[in-house]
Amino acid sequence: AKENEFAATYNAGVMKEIGYFADDATTFPQNNTPITGKEAIIKYLKAHRDTVSKGKKITFTTNEVFVSKEGEQVVEIGNYTIEDSTETVLNSGNYMTLFVKKEGKYYCLRDMSTSDLPN
User: How many C-beta atoms lie closer than 10 Å to residue 75's C-beta?
Assistant: First the structure.
């Protein structure tokens, strides 16, 4: 559900607060240095959405979910697809996200993706 909400918000081109990233989150975007902090990540995603991803749609498929014994952490592994407006696949790859539970809700603490495309 978290990935679907993230994709819907990203695809709409409106990077608003959806409770996805923890304040101290770090994302490891492809071909870029790590980005730390919720505000910095949202700023990066908005710039990426307004330039590189404009007119494209991302979808996520969750393949595995690992929940810690206490339920305080969840690791999600899946794949993504990026399509243009004609539904032609432009890119696809895999991701891994670590969610932590804070105040009864799960937030992304670490996020990483890799493309299936050759360098």
Answer: 14
Task: Tell me the pLDDT tens digit for each residue of 74-95.
Answer: 999 999 999 998 999 988 999 9
- Comparing C-alpha atoms, which of 15, 10, 16, 35 is closest to residue 24? 35
**Cβ pair 98, 110 in contact under 8 A:** yes
Q: What is the tens place of the pLDDT at every residue in 14-37?
A: 766 667 899 999 999 988 899 999
Tokens standing for residue 104: 């009864």
Quick one: tokens of 39? 């505000």
Report in angstroms the alpha-carbon separations of 76 from 3, 18, 81.
10, 18, 16
Chain-centre distance for alpha carbon 103: 21
At 85, list the tokens: 């407006």
